[in-house]
Amino acid sequence: MQPHPITKYRPWGTIDLHDRQWPSKTIDSVPVWCSVDLRDGNQALPIPMGVKEKLELFKLLCEIGFKQIEIGFPSAAQTEFDFARKLIEDQLVPDGVALQVLTQAREHLIKRSFESLRGAQKAILHLYNSTSPLQRRVTFGKSKEEIKNIAVEGVKLVKKYLSELSDTEVQLEYSPESFSDTEVEYSLEVCEAVMDAWEPTEQNPIILNLPATVELFTPNIHADQIEWFCRNMQERNKAVISLHTHNDRGTGTAASELGLLAGADRVEGTLFGNGERTGNLDIVTVALNMYAQGLHPELNFGNLDQVREVYERTTGMTVHDRHPYGGDLVFTAFSGSHQDAIKKGMDLREKQDDSKNSHWQVPYLSIDPGDLGRSYEEIIRINSQSGKGGVAYVLSREFGLELPKAMHPEVGNLINEKADSESRELPANEIYAIFKREFLEKNAPLELISFDSGKEHGKEEVSCSAIIKFNGEQKEVQGRGNGPINAFVNGLDENGLKDFKLTDYRQHSIGGGSATESAAFVQLQTKVGRVAYGCGINSSIEKSGLLALVNAYNRTR
Question: What gap in Å lies between CA 259 and CA 257, rounded to an integer?
C-alpha cells in the first residue's frame, strides 16, 4: 500500500442535491425484477455454462417468478444465439416472460439480435455503450457528442429492424454503461437523446438502466445519482428507471435498496450475487430483505435449498456458509446464550394461538427459516454436517475447553469424519473422548516421565531437568531458557530431538477454587511442514504447557 499521503487514489465527488428526499422514504412497493444470471453471471464464470446448464437455470428462474430474464449476448457467440433459438423454437418460455438480449450499438450485432428473437412472445432489446470520461478518453478517444451519437444511431438501427419482430412485443432498454462514474448531467443528456430517437409512450416505456458497472463510492452517493436523474428528466412517466449494481465495495445490496428509495422502478441482478469481480447484486438478499419487512417480493424462495442446489450445480459456484439467507450457517447458533434465547422464542411461539401466522419475534432470527424451506432444528446437534465451530462450542460448554480458533478446523474435521463414517450424531461425552485420545494422550514416540525446573540465584534464566522416553528408550534431558517450556525445548535440541518451531501457545483456567486446572494449547510446525496442535491439562500451569507440547510433537510424527 502507498504510505500517507496517498496520491494514487482520490475521493469521488458528491451530487449537488441538498434537498434529497430518499433518506425519509421506505421501500413500500415491489420493483420489476430482471435476472441477468444467464448473461452477466455466465460471462463471469471460469467455465461458462453449457446449453444443458443454462436450460436448467432458466427453468428455475421462471419457477421463482422472474418475468424478465436476460438470456445472453446472442450476436456475440453462436452458442448464445442457439440457446435463444432453442428457448423459442421448443416453446420453453412461459407466458408473460420477456427474453432480454444484450447488444452493442452496431448494425450487424443489432440485426443478429433481432434474428435470435424471432417468434418470441415478449422481448427486451438491451442496447448499451459506455459513457464515462475515463472510457471516452482511454477506450474510445471520442468526444461527448460522438459518444451520444453512438447511442442515438444505435436506437435508430433498432427501430429499423423492428419490423422483423412484428408479432413480438418489443421493449427497448438502454444502458449508459459506467453510469456510476459518468457525469450525471451528461448521462441524462444521452438518455434523453435516446428517448427522443425511440419515442416511448406511457403504455410502452423505455427502460433506462443506470449501471454501477464498477461500484466506486458509498451507497448514499449512488442514491443521490438516481434521485437527481429521476427529478431532472423531462418525461419521467415514459421511462422505467432500472438499477444494475455490482459489489466492488461490498455494498451492492445497500446501493440497490437506497436506489429504490431514490425513485428506481426496476432491479437487475443474479442469484447469490454471481457476476464479474466481486459479483452482481444478489437478488435473493434484496427480495428476502423486503419479505422480512412485510413486503412480499413476488419471487418465490420458499425452497431456498433447492434454488441453491440448482445454482451451484449449473454455475459451478458455491454459496458461502455465511451468505445471507442461503448460507449453511446463517440459521445456526453456536453460542450458548444465543441458543437459549432462540429456544425460548420458539417455545413462546408454540404457546401462542395461530403461531404460524403471528408476528415473527424470535431472538437472533430475523426471518423464520421455515418460510424458506430451511430448518432451525439442528442448531446444537453435532453430526457430519455440523460446522467446526459447533464442535468447539460443545467442548467449551460441556468441558470448559476454549480452543484457539486456528485449532477449530483440525478438531472439527476429526469429529465430523467420525460422525460421517458412522452416519450418526455424536453426544458430548463421545466428542470429548475423541478429543482426549487424539490431543491429550499422544504418548509416543515422546513421553514425559518427570520434570523439574528452577532459577539459579541471581539469574533470570530457567533451568530444567526432565526424564523422557523416546521410542521406548529412557533419557535425561537438561536445558536452559527464558521459561520452563523454552528450557525443555532447548533440552530436546541438545539431544537432537528438535525438528520443529513453536508457532502458537495458549493457556486458560478450567473450574475454580481448589479444583482449578490449567488447559494449554501448543501448535508446532516441523521442518518438513507438518503442523499440529496438542493440548495439556494439569493442576500445574507449567506441566500443562509441557504436556501440550509433547502431544503436539507426537501428532506431527
Answer: 5
Contacts of 235 (CB under 8 A, 6+ apart): 195, 200
Q: Contact at 8 Å (CB) between 108 and 154?
A: no
Contact indicator for 73, 104 with CB cutoff of 8 Å = no
Beta-sheet strand order (sheet of 531-538):
500-510, 517-526, 531-538
Residue 72 · residue 80 · CB < 8 Å: yes
Interatomic CA distance for residues 534 and 442, integer angstroms: 9
HSE toward the beta carbon, residue 137, CA cutoff 13 A: 4
Q: Per DSSP, which regions of 29-161 are E strands?
A: 32-35, 68-72, 98-104, 122-130
The list of the chain residues with pLDDT below 50 reads 377-379
| Separation of CA 276 from chain center | 14
Closest CA to 151 of 214, 106, 213: 106
How far is it, in rounded angstroms, from Cα 167 to Cα 223?
A: 38
3-state DSSP call for residue 42?
helix
What's the DSSP call for residue 366?
S
Domains of the chain: 22-315 (3.20.20.70), 336-440 (no CATH), 446-555 (3.30.160.270)
> How far apart are alpha carbons 129 and 135 in whole angstroms?
10
Tell me the Ramachandran region of residue 91: left when phi exceeds 0, alpha when psi lies from -120 to 50, beta otherwise: left
The whole-angstrom separation of Cα 327 and Cα 306 is: 13
Residue 544: its pLDDT value, please?
A: 95
Q: Report the C-alpha gap between 411 and 455 in whole angstroms.
A: 37
Quote the pLDDT of residue 378: 41
Strands 462-470 and 446-455: antiparallel
- What gap in Å lies between CA 21 and CA 118, rounded to an integer? 43
**DSSP character at residue 321:** T
Calculate helix-pair angle for 219-232, 184-198, nearest 10 degrees.
40
- Provide the b/e sequence for 528-537 (b: ≥16 CB within 10 Å): eeebbbbbbb
Backbone angles phi and psi of 399, in degrees to 5 = -130, 0
- Packing angle between helix 184-198 and helix 144-161, nearest 10 degrees? 30
Cell numbers for 387: 460446522
Contact call for residues 120 and 99 (beta carbons, < 8 A):
yes
Closest CA to 301 of 312, 286, 313, 318: 286
- Detail the DSSP E strand segments found in 410-461: 446-455
**Structure-block grid coordinates of residue 362:** 424470535
Distance between CA atoms of 176 and 4, rounded to whole angstroms? 35
| Per-residue burial over 273-304, b = 16 or more CB atoms within 10 Å of its CB, e = otherwise | bbbeeebbbbbbbbbbbbbeeeeebbbebeeb
For residue 369, which of 395, 342, 401, 344 has the smallest C-alpha distance?
A: 342
Could you give the CA distance from residue 398 to residue 404 in angstroms, rounded to a whole number? 16
Question: CA 236 from chain center: how many Å?
Answer: 35
- Which runs of consecutive H residues, i.e. helices, occur in 465-536? 484-494
CB of 382 closer than 8 Å to CB of 388: no
Q: Please choose, from the candidates 192, 189, 176, the residue with its C-alpha nearest in 3D space to the C-alpha of residue 235.
A: 192
Closest CA to 36 of 113, 126, 116: 126
pLDDT value of residue 201: 97
